[in-house]
Amino acid sequence: MQNLEGKTAFVTGGASGIGLGIAKALLGAGMNVAIADIRQDHLDAATVELAGGERVLALQLDVTNRAQFAEVADAAEARFGNLHVLIANAGVGLGGPTEQATYADWDWVNGVNVGGAINAVVTLLPRILRHGEGGHIVCTASMGALVPVPGSTIYCAGKAYVTSMMECMRLELEPRGVICSAFCPGAVQTQIAKSGETRPAALADTGYAESDKRRQASGDLSHLFQTKEEVGQRVLQGILNDELYILTHHEFLDGVRERGLATTLAVQDHLPENPEYKATFPFLFRNPAITQEIARQQALKAARKG
Question: Which of 118, 157, 268, 299 is the most exposed place for a label (fewest CB within 10 A)?
Fold first, then answer.
């Protein structure tokens, strides 16, 4: 979307960290912003920090609760009218050896990080399509989706899931006026380390209690991370540029390149192609949205250099 002035954004996990940074940037671009978050204390503080008056609506939401999701979407539409930009950002973090993970660990993280994104799309996409004014969906993934690391299996797998959602939805929805983007940040100054405070009692059984204690004892390294304002402005830029992949940190460049090279080299190009197979299912073998993104990013880099 190029023209954001006067339109409305709906941001899940919008009361702290990345979500609040994005809400700030979109508010600054002239949008109305509905911030939805599970923690009322964070919503109260975010409302003060945003200082947007009637252009900000704070809504308490558990993104795993589908009925509640529909209720808050109704409330946002009642206040602002049509919704145009969806930021499916709510997320939780958990790390440790894969063999120590319980079913509850998998269910909690995926319920929020994957299920929350699914619920956002199912609830809001039909509303965006219905008004026909165009829209944009940004799903917060992670550089862990592109450069996964040991000890983060549950988290990175979920972030890869939502990245693929955006890659698939992009080509399907762009002709209908809705752009889709995967936001893959590196480390940001957020509250994700405290996400266990909102973990449901029914999913409290964890194999990561000791890992979590060690992580908390390792000290505060947030001075190495980007601020929520920096990443908020990056997402705004990505929306204005219609980018498929909204990435942040330069430090991941080698890892991203290596993954691309490793998958390229793994293709069995020593075997002959089956021309009938290729001609029958041409849509399987490349995603034009990715091809288009290459040209877009090349043009953006050229413009920055020029």
Answer: 268
